[in-house]
Amino acid sequence: MKILVAIKQVPDTATQMKLGADGKTIDPTGITWIVSPYDEFAVEEALRIKEKRGQGEVVAVSLGPDRVKEALRSCLAMGCDRAIHLNDPAWGAADTLMTARALAAVVKQEAPQLVLCGRQAIDDDMGALPAQLGELLGWPSAYWIMEEAVDADGKTVRVARQVEGGLEVFDLPLPAIVTAQKGLNEPRYPTLKGIMGAKKKELKDVKAADVGLAAEAPQLSITALEALPPRPPGRIIQGDLPTAVKELVRSLREDAKAI
Amino acid sequence: MEKFRGVDYYEIEGLLSEDERMVRDAVRDWVEAEFLPVVIEHHRAGTFPLDLMPKLGEMGIFGATLQGYGCAGLNNVAYGLIMQELERGDSGLRSAASVQSGLVMYPIHAYGSEAQKEQWLPAMARGEKIGCFGLTEPDHGSDPGGMKTRAVRTTDGYVLNGTKLWITNGSVADVAVVWAKEADGEIYGYLVERGTPGFSTLDIHGKFSMRASITSELAFQDCQIPLENKLPHTKGLRGPLGCLDQARYGIAWGAIGAAMTVYDWALQYAQQRVQFGKPIGSFQLVQQKLVGMITEITKAQLLCLQLGRLKDEGKARPQQVSMAKMNNVQMALDAARLARDILGAAGIVDEHPIIRHLMNLETVNTYEGTHDIHTLIIGRDITGLDAFGM
Known about the structure:
The complex is a heterodimer. By secondary structure, chain A is of the alpha/beta class. Helices cover 29% and strands 24% of the residues of chain A. Chain A starts with a strand and ends with a helix. The model of chain A has no long low-confidence stretch (mean pLDDT 93). Chain B is of the alpha+beta class. Chain B folds into three domains: 12-125, Orthogonal Bundle (Butyryl-Coa Dehydrogenase, subunit A, domain 1), CATH 1.10.540.10; 131-229, Beta Barrel (Butyryl-CoA Dehydrogenase, subunit A, domain 2), CATH 2.40.110; 238-383, Up-down Bundle (Butyryl-CoA Dehydrogenase, subunit A, domain 3). Chain B is built from ten helices and nine strands. In chain B, a hairpin with a 3-residue loop joins strand 2 and strand 3. The A-B interface holds A 13-14, 32, 70, 73-74, 77, 189-193, 195-196, 198-199 and B 2-6, 18-19, 22-23, 26, 29-30, 58-61, 64, 72-74, 78, 82.
């Protein structure tokens, strides 16, 4: 069974974001890049499906600039068999739809039985791509999945997601798209041998023309990014206790309108 | 405190290969997720999380630079970075890995027979078997050549008599690499399995340092071992010293990890702790301490990186390893003391990692060759004159 895992490289959660000079981009200096955590669940699940079935191939794919190779190599170190890097300046300003079109083109070439990805990337939290990809391919898709089981024949996948008070269970005919929610599994650490072996695995650069896509303009563009406003300083109410309490209650009621 | 972000003032990151960075990051994530949540309870109880040994083995930490026998075959810089990240967790964690890799797997790989390698290396690489290293004795620490432990050849093996002290993982080890003198006055190495009659261990209690690490005494009383348990390819003090050279190299890197964590913690604390209406990081005396720490850490990082590159080229000399061990551990100890100062009273409780590292580093400063002994090794190297009093 061939499984394709779509991953995104995102800034590490510990990174303190700074706006770029143009006010529309993030300043990349000092950013540590990682595989988006939900995508790691997807990689882990793909590897487990392959291990359980005793055969198959797991292909990691990602779109982005040269630095994305490091994220793909992490996937190879975890155990993916090969990787595809959608790396073309034409995709420099790709929105989710352009990215979905590029992935759909790769899926058509690779013809996997299952596409896995995270429920959303933790940078912009759009979460739009899996649905767009499903639409472009005409494949069934299920989101925020906590449990997954491909049937023995590889014809269907049973998935479950958490809803208020229980699990909602679906059967999807394959090929299908499934997105991973936290709780699906516990991703493995890459082993040192896996890391050393990663560079011997295939990591293929793919340009837009290679997958038969013509240049297009993104339909979504960022107008402005704003940093969160700094938190206003706290206020310490001085004075003796009864007066201070009165002032606190007055301030909560009249200034903050909290009570 | 914010998640540890690494300490790199001189863009040393750029001098590392992608593989080396990935290895470091994998171990850093592991320590963060698996070890740091349990270290305080083990430190308080004076125990080591033995259940983590197979997990470390699964990652490929043990014997990581060795070729074959299920080992990862990494270069020495990657190995150093592993030690750095483990000691960022705790010196006890790094010690367990150092002993397993540098002091047990290394001599079996370098001096052992094929049968010994097959028997021990793959299982030790997986963390299923644990090893310890018996060189130091109650009366012979810095002077191992004067050891009293004796091995006497019998018709079908050797009989060992003597005591070894300050042995990391002694009581939990499946196999001990024991150094003893034979009738010819030369030192040889022997593999002694746990449970061999005449071999007993006793743990050392009351430690104020290396609490999350097992330290034992090994006693050999007419302990009979078979002929094939002798390491065939080593004779003389050179054998154990070769092992120590491996372990000291790891310690030099490990000390950077301890220093990085106390620095990062103290820096964040100084930025957040307000006294006299300002963060204490705004005071000149606090800044001086932090600047001293980052400067020394940066120098230590460069020292280790170049040493690792030399080692990969087969050019690193033991005296150079001595310099890195001596300098970096002293640096880390100084950094921990300064960090403890910056934290004030908070610096002595274990919810902050400072006092734990500070106490650990007191051990690291004197084991595997004391600071003074390394000074004499380098002194003899540059002057050509021996100051060991021999």
